[in-house]
Amino acid sequence: MSACENKASTGFTLVEVIITLLVAVIVGAIMVQYLGSSLIQSSAPLKRLVADAALQGTADHIIGAFRQTAPSDSAAWNSFQSGIGAAGTNQNNAYGEYRVLFNDYIQFDITGNEIPDVYGTAPENILKIVIAGTGDDALTFLLIR
Questions:
Q1: Does residue 16 have a pLDDT over 80?
Q2: Nearest to residue 98, comparing CAs of 144, 62, 44?
Q3: With 0-12 CB in 10 A as exposed, 13-18 as middle and 19+ as buried, what is 138?
Q4: Which of 109, 89, 104 has its CA nearest to residue 140?
Q5: Backbone angles phi, psi at 16, to 5 degrees
Q6: Most buried residue among 14, 59, 72, 111 by CB atoms closer than 10 A?
C-alpha cells in the first residue's frame, strides 16, 4: 500500500460532511418546531406561582391587620375598609401591591345566596374583598365582624 492510498482512506469527503450538516439542520428545525413553545414558555408556571404567592401574601397581610385591629364599631370598620382601597383601583401599600376588584359589604338570603346590595343597605358585618395581583388570578375572601 502506498502513502497516497493510506492518506485517501482517512477522513471524510466533502459530500459526507455536507450531507451530515444537512441532516443536522433538518433535525434541528423539526426539534424547534415541536419543542420551541415548550422551551420558551417553560418559566410561565413558575412566574404564575410567584404571582399567586404574592397575592396570597397580600391577603394574609389584610387578614392579619383585620385580626389585629378587630374593628368593632362602624367607624373603625369603615376606616379599615377604606384602607384596603376602592374597587377598581391599584394599590401599593403596607398590605402589598394589588388591584382591588371588589370591596363592599354584602349580605346573604336564607338559602345562602349573596344578595346584591344595590341600595347600600347591607349591614356592616360582612365585608367581601376581591383582589388581583399582577397576573389574571383573583382572590376572594370574607371578613366577618
A1: yes
A2: 62
A3: middle
A4: 104
A5: -65, -40
A6: 59
The C-alpha atoms of residue 83 and residue 134 are separated, in whole angstroms, by 20
CA pair distance 139, 124, nearest whole angstrom:
21
Domain ranges within the chain, ordered by starting residue:
3-40, 44-144
Instruction: Report pTM.
Output: 0.67
Cell numbers describing residue 22: 444537512
Beta-sheet strand order (sheet of 138-144)? 90-93, 96-105, 126-132, 138-144
| pLDDT band (50, 70, 90) for residue 98 | very high
Tell me how crowded residue 62 is: count the other CB atoms within 10 A of its CB.
Answer: 22
Which residues touch 48 (CB under 8 Å, ≥6 apart)?
135, 137
Q: What are the distances in angstroms from CA 97 to CA 56, 87, 135? A: 11, 14, 12
Alpha-carbon span 106 to 140, nearest angstrom: 13
